[in-house]
Amino acid sequence: MIIKELISNVAILITSLFLYTQLTRSSPLLSSSSLQKKVTAGILAGVLSNILMQYSMQFGESIVDLRHIPLILVAYYGGSIPALITMGLIGLGRFLIGVNTSSMLALLMIVFITVATLLSRRVNVRRSLKVFIALTASNVIFTIIICYLISASDLLWVLIPSYWGMSYIAGFTSFYVVEYVRESQRVLEKYKSEAVTDALTGLNNVRKFDMVFNDVSRQAQEKKENLSLLFIDIDHFKRVNDTYGHKEGDRVLIELGNILKNTVRSFDVVSRNGGEEFTVILLDCPTDRGRQISERIRKNVEQHLFLLTTGEIINITVSIGLACFNETTKSPPMLLKDADDALYEAKKTGRNKVCVSSS
What we know:
The chain contains twelve helices and nine strands. The chain has 359 residues and is α+β, with helices and mostly antiparallel strands. The protein folds into two domains: 2-196, Orthogonal Bundle (Arp2/3 complex 21 kDa subunit ARPC3), CATH 1.10.1760; 206-356, 2-Layer Sandwich (Alpha-Beta Plaits). Helix 3 runs antiparallel to helix 4 (80-97) and helix 4 (80-97) packs antiparallel against helix 5. The N and C termini lie far apart (82 Å).
């Protein structure tokens, strides 16, 4: 019966922690978290501890459960503020069940656990040892208090080892669940970012470009707005790689990406579509405005001094093809072909220039 009730506590605890980590994936509790975040975490942990008390074992005036685990968690991750809030809510909840010697000692136990956990997190040892110290401290104070409250030795011989075992299992499992879910979320977000980001320049990659282009094309058609597209290519980039090496060529690509981001408007979409080819989606932008932005890009690149790792400075130029939906191009899907044709025209007629689609 004792093991069964403690297992129910563990099940409630793990389920609640899983839900909490899913709901807070973008803002996990940390020592550096905002005050609002810490207060919220403290309240939620206090509520969870009170729920665990509703599924406790009762021995006369004493109730036994795993209410201390949420307290240890928020104290470890968030520090004193959420810990004190959780401690206060646990004490309040226990007194609502009954005000007696057992509840007074239970409050003493929670205070001791709070202090022990806050002190253990300051010790310069690995996380698992900190958790062990906090759990052991809580088990020791529980043993002292329960031995004072319950005189039946046959019951204590079963209750105390069961409690120690389930406390360790619940504590380490809870920390494992939090760490495992957080790490899984971090890796997933990393993969999501890498899937749509060019690893070299940090710009959107061709996959992200396709996704954004499809969305803005649909919106431009629905709202009957202009949509301009720039195809940008570095002139004679092969010479840079052949003369200075691919490492230096990568530095040029990175710096060009920065120039593009700093030249276009903040809401325009810059992507590296592969090799030395870049694109810029100019939102709600007519042809004349697109030409002005294109010329500013071309001039900024032409005038920029590209510093190589060897200390040598080189100059490059770019050719740009421009197409605009509703002006040069009849439908958004045709922007890709028309801008590419305009880029080819710029290359064919001398490079380092902007050509507008004549479709």
